[in-house]
């Protein structure tokens, strides 16, 4: 599809159709603004016919708005696969939370995205489409974009779809396109160690966010199957490498699960393993997923834990929950239309 192409690739594509090169710019702009092909007035009909099959094929099957202004869309792609994406409004701008796979095969015990396993990887253009949809729905133009930040924290494991995700990172930060700096992009991973090294070696500089959720391997294995493949120690070593290469502070996510990982000893252990690292801990009281029995730590206790970590020398904050009433909060996205309550 068109959105999988960089600007240079689009020029080649247009030439391969026997069309003049300048059509690439028109096509690129139209696709990036999510325009309906039929309604583009500066393109001749025969050109439209030629590109039709490669143009955007998606359908917005739901668009929900939360009380807190968070928005969630379910996008259906050509093969009928559905993914959800979320728009979060902050003081400094808009963040889009994108999905990277249809479903997920990581099997974390607390997450809705993994309930039906992995259906398929999303292509780079399908990930980009999620950003562009929200950008244009906010009335942006290519020169004046509205989206300021991106988090790869929707459905799927980004480092389990390495090629497409890194292509997406190149596309979304390209100056000819929407031009979002890698500094404003966070990639969240459950810790696929070899691909953390690869990301650093391939020259990316996005903010790396690790879903840690436990201070030791024993506990981590009970909630995250990936812990059987990689030890926390190996993940932390890879993070040190990423930090050395990029200078970017690492963020650790820690979903607080009542009675599972929120005990005093566990928090102390967490501070011990992170001691001396340039990092930040983001505490997320677990959001409810109706098929799962685990319960989130209450917010009061979460703030206390953040304070305790700070006292132990670890920078920590409690993440604001946004969009929970439309099942748009962390861990609630899935590959069908999750409903509004
Ligand atoms: N696969 C990536 C991106 C997933 S989602 C990863 O594992 O990082 C982003 C964050 O939400 C992850 O830290 C994930 O572990 C967390 N999460 C999943 N389910 C959750 C839930 N029910 N409540 C709160 N956070 C959750």
Give an account of the 3D structure.
The protein is α/β, with parallel strands linked by helices. It folds into 2 domains: 1-55, DNA polymerase, domain 1 (Orthogonal Bundle); 57-326, Aldolase class I (TIM Barrel), CATH 3.20.20. The chain has 10 helices and 12 strands. The model has no long low-confidence stretch (mean pLDDT 92).
Briefly say what this structure is:
The protein has 341 residues and is an alpha/beta fold. It is built from 10 helices and 12 strands.
Helix and strand topology:
Blueprint: H1 7-16, H2 22-32, H3 45-51, E1 58-65, E2 71-77, E3 82-90, E4 93-97, E5 101-103, E6 118-121, H4 124-137, E7 147-152, H5 162-172, E8 185-189, H6 193-201, E9 207-211, H7 217-223, H8 232-246, E10 250-256, H9 264-274, E11 279-285, H10 299-311, E12 316-318
Parallel strand pairs: 4-7, 7-8, 8-9, 9-10, 10-11, 11-12
Antiparallel strand pairs: 1-2, 2-3, 3-4, 5-6
Helix pairs in contact: 1-2, 4-5, 6-8
| Estimated helix fraction | 25-40%
Radius of gyration: 21 Å
Instruction: Provide a count of the helices.
Output: 10
Strand residue content: 15-25%
Give the distinct bound molecules: S-adenosyl-L-homocysteine
Assign the CATH architecture of the largest domain. Answer: Alpha-Beta Barrel
Indicate the CATH topology of the largest domain: TIM Barrel
Lateral strand order in the biggest sheet: 1-2-3-4-7-8-9-10-11-12
Determine the CATH superfamily of the largest domain. Aldolase class I
CA distance, first residue to last residue: 35 Å
Taken in chain order, the helices and strands follow as HHHEEEEEEHEHEHEHHEHEHE
Strand count, sense and barrel status of the largest sheet are: 10 strands, mixed
Oligomeric state, counting identical vs distinct chains: single chain
